[in-house]
Amino acid sequence: MRMCIAIGFCNLKGGAGKTTLAINVATALHRGGTRVLLVDADPQGSATAWAARAAELGRDGPPCISVASAALRRDLPRLMESFDVALIDGPARLGVETRAAMLAADLVVVPMTPGAVDLWAAAETVRVLEDARSLRPELRAVALLNRADRTALSRLARTAIADLGIEPLPVTVGARVAFGEAMLTGLGVIDHAPASEAAIEIRRLTKALLAAVAGEGSEVAA
């Protein structure tokens, strides 16, 4: 039996890469034949704007809807009836709204970028996660180092992530120009630059996320 799963990209700090990651993983799944729904729960509406640009240019991308985070837990099961996976672009800054997005997900992905301010904000996000887990103890979460490079700062960030107490994904995503270029053209990076390092990283990330939820009985395609 096919199971519907929801993966939420959540971080209280803006600029951690939630939207870019959600869009690109959704595009990778869509290209692989998975019925995927991109859910924009961020009031800024960047994922919705990207989807509108894609439609304007006639791109074949995943469907995208905007849903207030407070309504997600109630409305998402109905919205997912025709889909295998929902990718939630969670809101930033407001802990109550972020917690609502987390509670609607089967797996929470906390993207973190190298830098002290970003890691401090991630610690705040983890506190919101623990609050969500008080209501849903089975809620799973993983950390993802985003915009990583080969500097000492990224190495220190990996150590800091391990200290936060949530499982780190065994993949990282680098700071790649191709992500921004793809967004401007209404594409995911695997369509814009399929042989690029960015596309390779998104394919690896997509497989890692599916592996992280595999224990929930999912049969979605990699």
Description:
The protein is an alpha/beta fold and 222 residues long. It has a single domain (5-212), classed as Rossmann fold. The chain has nine helices and seven strands; from the N terminus they run βαβαβαβαβαβαβααα. The chain has helices at residues 18-31, 46-56, 69-79, 95-103, 116-135, 152-163, 177-184, 189-192, 197-213; strands at residues 5-9, 36-40, 64-66, 85-89, 107-112, 140-148, 167-174. It has a seven-stranded parallel β-sheet, sandwiched between helices. Helix 3 (69-79) runs parallel beside helix 4 and helix 4 (95-103) crosses helix 5.
CATH architecture: 3-Layer(aba) Sandwich
The portion of residues assigned to helices is 40-55%
Q: What is the overall pLDDT average?
A: 88
- Classified in CATH, the superfamily is P-loop containing nucleotide triphosphate hydrolases
Number of self-contained structural domains: 1
Largest sheet: 7 strands, parallel
Question: How are helices and strands ordered from N to C?
Answer: EHEHEHEHEHEHEHHH
Secondary structure category:
alpha/beta
CATH topology: Rossmann fold
Number of helices: 9
Strand order in space, largest sheet: 3-2-4-1-5-6-7
How many E strands?
A: 7
Shape by Cα distribution: globular
Rg (CA only) = 16 Å
Assess the beta-strand content as a share of residues: 15-25%
Low-confidence stretches: 216-222
List the helices and strands and how they pair.
Blueprint: E1 5-9, H1 18-31, E2 36-40, H2 46-56, E3 64-66, H3 69-79, E4 85-89, H4 95-103, E5 107-112, H5 116-135, E6 140-148, H6 152-163, E7 167-174, H7 177-184, H8 189-192, H9 197-213
Parallel strand pairs: 1-4, 1-5, 2-3, 2-4, 5-6, 6-7
